[in-house]
Structures are given as structure tokens and as C-alpha cells.
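Try this one yourself first.
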């Protein structure tokens, strides 16, 4: 009896130890499985996170150089085409607008002076690109008081003609609307004045009306309006409009009936 009891206790003890060992192995296996799963998840996260941190190209990087320049100038411009036109014609008694251009926007396409090389009447360029203090008076001694251009910024350059075709150049700060300079164009001769007067006589529609026609066709900002000859077939208002995509569209608008004769978009 004592031997059997002793054997029974031994078997129970061995069984208990075996169960304990099995439990320990099972718990260890679960821990390893959990650690492996955590490690795998961490590894996968490491692969994903760098992709989430990458940044997409900026909108400006997708624009062409010309489009970026248009955006830069127009973002800084506070004075509209209409307001600049009104200010310019107000500087010349009885004057009519024949050209108005926002400097810095597609200057290479036009003959308007560069903002970095605007010459004074004496033929010397001012370091800041605006007329020198001694160049504000016109050759006949009359001129509107010139406002200081102040800090560099966009400028509207207008050509306003008297009834006889004499053209005055008026420069307007496109941020505060103040007149920077108003002077008679000294490069005109009798033929130039006659040509300008003839074009104005033929133009029964105003530049503002032409600009309205152009912006009704394409929503955007007017950056230039110029009275020009239509290859011997009357006169046109050439209107530049920059849209929300910063592309420029040029419209040739008949200066007698506001009909759009030509339309061309510059994709650069």
C-alpha cells in the first residue's frame, strides 16, 4: 500500500510538471508570435510612413516662366485697368487713351519701356527704372506734379493723345494709383501725330468697351489695351487678358463695332 501510494504521488507530480512545462512553452510561443506580429507591423509601417511624408510639387513649379511672372505682377497690382485709364486721361486735358500697358507682363511682346531701363528725356536711364527727377517736365515746360514712385512695384504706362495727335506718356503706380510721371513724348514728328489723330478719329468704340468685349469672351484681368492699324482695314483695339490659369489671350477687337476679329492664346 505504501509503495503504490508513493508511485501514485510520483506520477501526479510528473504529470503536474509536464503540464506546467507545456503551459510555459505555450505562453512563450504566444509571446514570440506577438513579438513577431508587432515587429512585422512596425516594418510595414516604416515602409508606408516615408511615402506619406513626401510632398507634391508646388503649383508655381508647374507654371512656365512667363506664367510665373504674370502671377507675380498681377498679385502685386491693386489698380485696375479701368482706374488706370481714368487717371491717365485725367492728366491730359481733352486727351484720349491710345495705349495702356502693365509693365512686367509680357514686355518682350511690346515696345513699352522696360521697368529696369526707362530712359529720362535726356537719354540717360534712371537706376531705379523710373524717370530721373530732372526729367519730369515736358519739353514745353508743362507737366503734372509727379508723385514719388516709392518702393519698387508694378506700373501702368499709358499713352494719351491730344486732339492733334500729340501723345503724352503717363506712368501710374499700380499699387496706390498715384501718378509717377506725366510728360509729352519728345520723339513724335508731324507724321506721327497725324497718324495717331487719324486712328482716334476712326475709333468709334472706347478702349473700355473693347476690354469689356474681350473679358466677356474670356474671364480674366486686362493687362494691356492698344489702338492699332488692322493692316489697312480700319483700326482695332488689341486687348490682352490674363486668365486664372495665368495664360495670356490677345484679342483684336474692331474699333468701330466691337467685333472680335482675332483671338490668340499664349500657352507659355
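Now uncover the answer:
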Amino acid at each position: 500500500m505504501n509503495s503504490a501510494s508513493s508511485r501514485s504521488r510520483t506520477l501526479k507530480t510528473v504529470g503536474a510538471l509536464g503540464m506546467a512545462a507545456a503551459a510555459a512553452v505555450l505562453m512563450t510561443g504566444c509571446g514570440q508570435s506577438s513579438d513577431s506580429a508587432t515587429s512585422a507591423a512596425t516594418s510595414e509601417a516604416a515602409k508606408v510612413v516615408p511615402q506619406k511624408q513626401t510632398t507634391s510639387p508646388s503649383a508655381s513649379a508647374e507654371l512656365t516662366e512667363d506664367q510665373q511672372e504674370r502671377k507675380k505682377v498681377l498679385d502685386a497690382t491693386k489698380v485696375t485697368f479701368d482706374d488706370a485709364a481714368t487717371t491717365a486721361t485725367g492728366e491730359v486735358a481733352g486727351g484720349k487713351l491710345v495705349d495702356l500697358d502693365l509693365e512686367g507682363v509680357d514686355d518682350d511682346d511690346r515696345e513699352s519701356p522696360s521697368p529696369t531701363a526707362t530712359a529720362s528725356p535726356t537719354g540717360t536711364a534712371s537706376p531705379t527704372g523710373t524717370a530721373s527727377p530732372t526729367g519730369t517736365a515736358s519739353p514745353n515746360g508743362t507737366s503734372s506734379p509727379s508723385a514719388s514712385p516709392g518702393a519698387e512695384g508694378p506700373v501702368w504706362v499709358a499713352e494719351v493723345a491730344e486732339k492733334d495727335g500729340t501723345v503724352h506718356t503717363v506712368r501710374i503706380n499700380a499699387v496706390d494709383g498715384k501718378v509717377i510721371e506725366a510728360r509729352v513724348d519728345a520723339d513724335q514728328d508731324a507724321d506721327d501725330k497725324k497718324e495717331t489723330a487719324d486712328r482716334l478719329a476712326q475709333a468709334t468704340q472706347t478702349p473700355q468697351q473693347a476690354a469689356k468685349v474681350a473679358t466677356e469672351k474670356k474671364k480674366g484681368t486686362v493687362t494691356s489695351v492698344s489702338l492699332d492699324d488692322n493692316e489697312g482695314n480700319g483700326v482695332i483695339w488689341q486687348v490682352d487678358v490674363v486668365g486664372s490659369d495665368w495664360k495670356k489671350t490677345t484679342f483684336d477687337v474692331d474699333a468701330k463695332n466691337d467685333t472680335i476679329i482675332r483671338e490668340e492664346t499664349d500657352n507659355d
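Discussion: The chain is about 35% helix and 20% strand. The longest strand covers residues 221-229.
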